[in-house]
Amino acid sequence: MHWITPSLFNAASGIARTLLATGGLQTQRPLPFAFAFAAVAALLTSGYMLLRGVPLQLHSWGLGSGALVAGAAACVIESLARAPNPAYTMGVFRVQAVLSAVAAHFLLGAELGVVQMGGMLVALIGAWLIATQPVKATHRAESPEALKSDRSWVPFAIGAALFATAKDIINKHGLQMIGKG
């Protein structure tokens, strides 16, 4: 299967994940919600592996990646709880693709062309505009999780992007080490 197919599925399912998380955060606190999210993901992945006949094994690269995914999920959930609009969190968090591309270029020798860098610059400008523009307060922004700053969600979105970037680099390096990447 070409890499673009699962990437498109992940992007499409990301919309549903974000909307479900935003709805769930109306009644639950962020960290217990993140835990439930991770538990369901682990159960579904394990079930899929068993159905495919893939043995359940723990691998050091996978454990490291899992820890980073947990950090990213906790930060995204906290940011969603604080942000007045879930798209703000996701707009800043998805800068992670730019961070991953740059890190992969320097750490793994991945190609990075002028056109790609131009697209990344546009993405960075968009994220900066999202994170720095004042927004009208809503009932979500005044929730107990939100701090007095209308930008209290930004550090969590950036933290999630950094965790996810580290996860991407560890995943690619780990797959290369075991001959699958």
Cα-atom radius of gyration: 17 Å
The stretches of 5 or more residues where confidence is low (pLDDT under 50) are: none
What is the CA–CA distance across the termini? 13 Å
Largest sheet, in brief, is: none
Percentage of residues assigned to helices: over 70%
Structural class: mainly alpha
Percent in strands:
under 5%
Rounded mean pLDDT score: 83
User: What is the number of helical segments per DSSP (H or I, 4+ residues)?
Assistant: 7
Order of helices and strands: HHHHHHH
Shape: globular
Oligomer: single chain
Secondary structure topology:
Elements: H1 4-24, H2 30-51, H3 60-82, H4 86-93, H5 96-108, H6 114-132, H7 154-177
Name its key features:
181 residues, mainly alpha
Description:
With 181 residues, the chain is mostly helical. Helix content is 72%, strand content 0%. The chain contains seven helices and no strands. Helix 3 packs antiparallel against helix 7, helix 4 packs across helix 7 (154-177) and helix 5 (96-108) packs parallel to helix 7. The longest helix is centred in the C-terminal third of the chain and has 24 residues, at 154-177. The protein is globular and about 50 Å long. The relative contact order is 0.15.
